[in-house]
Specification:
The protein has helices spanning 3-20, 39-47, 58-64, 85-91, 101-114, 140-148, 172-189, 204-209, 219-222; strands at 29-33, 52-55, 73-76, 94-98, 118-124, 153-160, 195-197, 214-217. It has 230 residues and is an alpha/beta fold. It has a single domain (3-18, 27-221), classed as Alanine racemase (TIM Barrel, Alpha-Beta Barrel). An 8-stranded parallel β-sheet has the order 7-6-5-4-3-2-1-8. Helix 4 links the parallel strand 3 (73-76) and strand 4 (94-98). Helix 4 crosses helix 5 and helix 6 crosses helix 7 (172-189). The radius of gyration is 17 Å and the shape is globular.
Amino acid sequence: MSIESNIRTIQKQIEQASGRSGRDPSEVTLVAVSKFHPWQAVCEAAEAGVQFFGESRVQEAKLKIPQCPPALHWHLVGHLQSNKCRDAVGLFEMIQSVDSWSLAERLNNAAEKRGSSLPILLEVNVAGEASKFGYSPEALPEDLLKLNALDRLEIHGLMAIPPWTPQPEKARTHFRKLANLRKQCEDILQAPLPVLSMGMSSDFEIAIEEGSTMIRVGTGIFGERGRSTA
């Protein structure tokens, strides 16, 4: 199947999942994760109507983004090494994977040097997996006020990658945990956090049912990843 037909299928699934949970499909933003796919695939997805794209590696994005249409919105969805903060601030409209106070400080400093502000999401390790980055649900509230005090960063919400499972329904508990944590964080900040980035190719319908406002879909759009870096 073509990228365009894959996107149409996903859009229909978004509509169906939104309908089941009494939501408007327009509340859900589709981010096409283009890691390891060439810029030509990004252009094909853009022609099919996708506007938001996610990359996981700064070096790959530096090669790919200049070759793509200029009006696209680029998010970093993978772990960010601290020595790549300056480049990341220049490349991405949003960093979805802010997973520690030290990384937030470095991003704030990089944004200050550019004279810009930077929308971010705080990544939460909802299942406490040793192989994944992210704040623990217990630790995030402790750092939240000082994170919010960084004057160049704008906290827009939370992001999580729950454990992969061949049974998407098993992810529901983790999605619900993130949605509840967002409410707790909003109470602490006394401000809304509009973005809940959760759900990928295999489980995004469950995520939408649990309140996701942003889904990150790679394989479902582009197929299995190759190793292209441009």
